[in-house]
Amino acid sequence: MATPWALASHSPVLAGVALLLLIGLPAVFVTPGDKTQVPVAVPGWVTVALVVLQLLAAVTASWAAWPVPVALLVWALVIGAIYSEIPRWRRLTGGDLVATGPAHLVNEGLAFLFELLALAILAWWGATVGSGLALHLILGIGTPLAAAVVWGLFAAPKARVALPLAGVLAVKALVFGSAMIFLDVLGHRTLAVLFGVLVTANTVIATLDREAAFLKVDVSRWTGMNR
């Protein structure tokens, strides 16, 4: 089994900090118009950032204090919460919720890097499972190869099978979630937490960019049909 997280002995402190983030910040700092009473008025992007911080704190605290299956469930719930919050975030920011220019290029580069890291983790895990060189080679090569095929078919920017956005996110969650589990099994829970948080942030930005691209295509088609 995985070794405890490096900060597990301080999990009560982490849980307390997480609760402050979960309960306190989003309740105080609110965008005008989002609630009837606004204690401290802030721009929309600040509200979005506080909610994201709140969700990431929940993920980090769950990995620090709870078993892996429960932590993964929290991670999945956070991803679902982010997906459901996107329309509200667009409203709070006036629709300006995409990465442009250099930020977009950096995020795309990081996305590719995280995909390679996930495949490397799967290969690392496969090469350590069981005993015997043959099994190590089969799993060490076959596991990342299978993940790469699934990714190319369903989750790549030019995927052969066009899935709705929820389907693409499910495939990404499967690949990245497996990498997180295997990294934890290999005894690196801290790295697994860091990997999951970074991948989640990167995927959220990429998802917003993809949705914006879909909206542009739909608008152009609609205007073309009504000319």
Automatic annotation (TrEMBL):
Claim: Transmembrane helix is one of the keywords in the record: yes
Keywords: Membrane, Transmembrane, Transmembrane helix
Keyword ATP-binding: no
InterPro entries: DUF2568
Source domain of life: Bacteria
Signal peptide feature range: none
TM region positions: 12-31, 38-57, 63-84, 105-127, 133-154, 161-183, 189-208
Protein name: Uncharacterized protein
